[in-house]
Design a protein that fits this description.
The complex is a heterodimer.
Chain A (H helix, E strand, L loop, with lengths): L3 E4 L2 E4 L5 E7 L7 E6 L6 E5 L3 E2 L7 E6 L2 E6 L8 E7 L2 E2 L3 E5 L1
Parallel strand pairs in A: 2-11
Antiparallel strand pairs in A: 1-3, 3-8, 4-5, 4-9, 5-6, 7-8, 9-10, 9-11
Chain B lengths: L2 E5 L2 E3 L5 E8 L8 E6 L5 E7 L6 E3 L7 E6 L4 E6 L8 E8 L7 E4 L3 E5 L2
The chains are: A mainly beta, B mainly beta.
């Protein structure tokens, strides 16, 4: 199975900050990388699919990039509602998650 | 509106079996790949298995191969997960999810989950 290494495990940032999360695959997965947001007690929600495509209804402050083994997820201007845990997913396998908090 | 509703969770003894169901509505079930994902309490997400729209192809994560079986009944708009030889580490919330068309295992709709507890 493919392994997905996500970092950092947690971060604290101020409202308006640019936030970046990285994800590394154990082998080349082309562009088949998705990003999810999960709030406590809720099912995850798809944000980005195929590395850089914004899912329907997702705010444009969220973006993704990368291909092969290295991927990046960015929140351009952190909002209070963005407090969540974010997961990358490649070929099914999820990364360990990044918990985002407000400083 | 798309809805996915899981059921069948509960308390089971180690070594026991459980069959989860996921009934969907609001879309043409037979047109989509479907997945099962689980989340142990306080832990991250683990993708378990998926099944092609017509049931002809199935994929599993190594940790459940040989113990779990994914299946579907398109006439009943239902997805299933048969879980055998359950272990303590299988305790989790189990979610069914619909995959986005032409995007590999991109899970665009999720159910609310059903809780499985494995304990003697």
């Amino acid at each position: 199975d493919i392994q997905m290494t996500q970092s950092p495990p947690s971060l604290s940032a101020s409202v308006g900050d640019r936030v970046t999360i990285t994800c590394q695959a154990s082998q080349d997965i082309s562009i088949y990388l998705n990003w999810y947001q999960q709030k406590p007690g809720k099912a995850p929600q798809l944000l980005i699919y195929d590395a850089s495509n914004l899912h329907t209804g997702v705010p444009s402050r969220f973006s993704g990039s990368g291909s092969g083994t290295d991927f990046t997820f960015t929140i351009s201007s952190l909002q209070p509602d963005d407090i969540s845990t974010y997961y990358c997913q490649g070929h099914g396998t999820f990364g360990g998650g990044t918990k985002v908090e407000i400083k | 509106e798309v809805h996915l509703v899981e059921s069948g969770g509960g308390l089971v003894q180690p070594g026991g079996s459980l069959r989860l169901s996921c009934v969907v509505s609001g879309f043409t079930f037979s047109g989509f790949w479907m997945s099962w994902v689980r989340q142990a309490p306080g832990k991250g997400l683990e993708w378990l298995a998926n099944i092609k729209d017509d049931g002809s192809e199935k994929n599993y994560v190594d940790s459940v191969k040989g113990r779990f079986t994914i299946s579907r009944d398109n006439a009943k708009n239902s997805l299933y997960l048969q879980m055998n030889s359950l272990r303590a580490e299988d305790a989790a919330i189990y979610y069914c999810a619909r995959e986005r068309v032409a995007a590999r295992v991109a899970l665009e709709y999720w159910g609310q989950g059903t809780l499985v507890t494995v304990s003697s």
